[in-house]
Write a structure and sequence with these properties.
Elements lengths: L9 H9 L23 H5 L12 H11 L3 H4 L4 H20 L16 H17 L5 H12 L7 H10 L1
Helix pairs in contact: 3-5, 5-6, 6-7, 7-8
């Protein structure tokens, strides 16, 4: 359950969690996910085991974790593996850069943006399609898709738009 999206349910959730006792099955686990939210019940938070998922620190670690999360078939299914692998590395490095800039606050980006793994996955699928479909790699199209649409779709500051286009 994405608790930050169900704020009206939070009082009911708090009641449910407070009434859990030994009569419940011993293997029962309640998994909740949430972005930071003021509506999340404090008592539920205090009585829970908490886990956080944060992007890796540094460009190298970010790129390594991105590659570790990929399946080997992602590389082998492309009919033109050499240009695909090279350009995929470019998108992975770009992804690491835009995520890493967030830690610098307003020096990194004028506004806070949540760039996600799904942005990179979308770029990866589009990259495979364009590499396989065209004789010449359409670099301009890939740049526009990556910087202006997939990642840039959430960038609202005009200076940040220039920056993300320049980075890619």
């Amino acid at each position: 359950m994405n608790c930050h999206l169900a704020t009206s349910f939070m009082p009911r959730l708090e009641y449910i969690v407070e009434n859990l006792d030994e009569t419940n099955h011993r293997d029962f686990r309640l998994w909740l996910t949430s972005m930071p939210s003021p509506s999340f019940p404090i008592s539920t938070l205090q009585n829970s085991v908490k886990m956080t998922l944060e992007p890796p620190s540094g460009l190298k670690q970010n790129c390594l974790s991105t590659y570790e999360a990929m399946d080997i078939k992602d590389f082998e299914e492309c009919t033109k593996p050499e240009p695909y692998k090279r350009l995929l590395f470019g998108f992975c490095f770009f992804h690491a850069i835009v995520q890493d800039r967030r830690k610098f606050g307003p020096i990194g980006w004028n506004k806070a943006y949540d760039f996600t793994k799904e942005d990179l996955d979308c770029c990866r699928r589009q990259l495979k399609y364009f590499v396989e479909q065209y004789e010449q790699i359409p670099y301009k199209v890939l740049n526009i898709l990556g910087a202006s649409i997939n990642y840039g779709g959430r960038v609202t500051d005009s200076i940040d738009v220039r920056l993300i286009n320049t980075i890619l």
